[in-house]
Amino acid sequence: MRLSDEQLARYHRDGFLVFPELFSPGEVEAMKRELQRLEAIDTDHVVRERGSGSAKTLYRVHEADGPTASSPFRAAGQSPRLLEPAQQLLDDPDLYIYHTKCNRKAAIDGSIWQWHQDYGTWMHDGTPEPTLTTAMIMLDEASEANGCLYFIPGSHRLGLLDAELDDKTTSYKLWVLPKGRLIEIMEQSPEPVAITGKPGTVAFFHPTILHGSGHNMSRRDRWQIYYVYNRVANRPRDVANPRPDYVRSTNWTPLRVGSDDILAGQPALAG
Ligand code: SIN
Ligand code: MN
């Protein structure tokens, strides 16, 4: 899928692009079936809510090996719909997947994500430059009521901002913006944009865009999957105590664009 010059310019201006229903209902259904299968697996690649034990994040669904390997998720990561735009956005044919994560925001009591920049964490992984891009696929309808993402348009152009490590209020340890600085930025920025849409909708976003998500007030869980693409040339340098491979991949083999038929070889869905 080729992005137009106008779309590229908009991404560089706003820090994100949204493509409604880029994946079909059948593809989304197959991916949700995969989530059900994967969340039952006992592995450190599946992070669970304290108390209920229900899965809140599934990692590393894009590789051919490992406990959470999944054929449709792997195929989607190499599909022309995700990989080609990522190559254009990063102006580089040689990309690899930094990580994948499937996030469930559980109905009523699922975790929130404070305002943050993703590169605030990835910088600590030893990743030299914020030349990454994330493709998020909505696997349920995302709405303001169920805790959709919000972006502050153009905030990626502020570069990396001073952050503090929050290990209390947000979903997991996250480098978040202090309140005073955040309000200052918001006063000088366009209003935050709610990233809502039907299942199958995709949003590409920049690693320094300020984003977060609130409570899920609805009665249904909300799943989204994130594919983070990095330039092979921008792979992390050595750091002391690197995070595990499922969040900071060391598979730096450049991806090649695959088939758009992400369900090839999958059992047909009933009905
Ligand atoms: C994130 O910002 O990395 C995840 C937010 C969410 O899934 O709501
Ligand atoms: Mn994030």
TrEMBL record:
One of the Pfam families matching this protein, by short name: PhyH
The yes or no answer to whether the keyword Oxidoreductase is present is: yes
- Keyword annotations: Dioxygenase, Oxidoreductase, Plasmid
Q: Which GO terms describe its molecular function?
A: 2-oxoglutarate-dependent dioxygenase activity; iron ion binding
Q: Which Gene3D superfamilies match?
A: q2cbj1_9rhob like domain
Q: Which domain of life is it from?
A: Bacteria
- PANTHER family the record matches: PHYTANOYL-COA DIOXYGENASE DOMAIN CONTAINING 1, PHYTANOYL-COA HYDROXYLASE
Q: What is this protein called?
A: Phytanoyl-CoA dioxygenase
Q: Which organism is it from?
A: Azospirillum brasilense
